[in-house]
Amino acid sequence: MREIIYLDNNATTRVAPEVRDAMQPYLTELYGNPSSAHTFGREMRRSVERAREQVASLLGASDTSEIVFTSCGTESDNWAICGILESQPDKRHIVTTRVEHEAVRNLCERLEKSGYEVSWLDVNEEGLLNLEDLRAALRPETAIVSVMLANNETGVLFPIEEIGRVVREQSNAVFHVDGVQAVGKIPINLSRTQVDLFSLSGHKFHAPKGVGALYVRDHLKLAPFLIGGGQERGRRAGTEAVPYIVALGAACDLAKNFDGHARVRNLRDKLEDTILASIPNARLNGTRDGERRLPNTASISFEHIEGESILAHLDEAGICVSTGSACNAESHVSSAVLRAMNVPYTAAQGSIRFSLGRYNTESEIDYTLAQLPAIINQLAELSPYEIKQE
Ligand code: PLP
Description:
Oligomer: single chain
Radius of gyration: 22 Å
Low-confidence stretches: none
Order of helices and strands: EHHEHEHEHEHEEEHHEEHEHHEH
Structural class: alpha/beta
Bound molecules: pyridoxal-5'-phosphate
């Protein structure tokens, strides 16, 4: 395969060599079942428990028993919401936002059709929530509040410490956070928050696809997701995916020790600032406040130009990006996240998400910045709209 410049790290990430090395023996000679009573099985159990410690440590959980392994972020999100609704059948109200990932949004739409009541919180043009709207939405019958920490399309961060305080002050609702895009990109310390449930997904931070986790605060009543053997203390049955769990633990260690966040942020800033300054009709989606946005993400709209065409031209130049959420790649409706932010249709259609990661280099950013203006110029000439030169 030819060399690519990978600027699509919010879609998925490369498996880190350290992670691959850690999991490799579990794909070959270390194949035992952690539930087996022999020494070989017990060795596997120790490996699973070590990974649980690594996940708990990255999240700042107060006990390893609060971590349950799952297969992906979607499973963690689905389980958190459905598990709470099942364990509190008399509460039939959910609070969430209009900018959640499909794993939460589509599930809540489906629950709404089946008779649950959902309050959908709006965001402003910068993608930020108004906590007064949250206060007003909470009721005694609210079972769960589910919000994301970092938005997958814009990188906008929701203030989960403050949100958690409001949820606790105003209700008895359980507080779920979809942390899938935040883990590995910003520090997380759940012990300082009121978060009851927190979803993460390994492939977003250099573990392979097929493993995730759900943090379940101690003593929280949550109906089990899979019923079967007693694995994961009866909460999620099925023989543990030991190689993947070991990989997730190694990825957590790697994330915890990563000291290159400022470098990634500088590369992102260089890319974003140069595009906004030099390409007419380029506009940023999401807040400009650096403290309220992931350091690796830049969602930029090129007004009156088709995002799909920009993506295809960048692709030809060997540069991988995304038009909003990867899950939207097949559909032509504009992104629900950008719609919720009131981004005009002509700009939403031309949105490109650049998402950087630990392996990107300055020369890759320079190359991208060298390719992009000509691509945008060429497409602007084909555009039926008259594009303003600023
Ligand atoms: N939540 C968010 C915010 C995401 O960005 C994603 C994936 O893009 C998911 C959930 C789903 O995670 P997974 O792909 O592991 O199912």
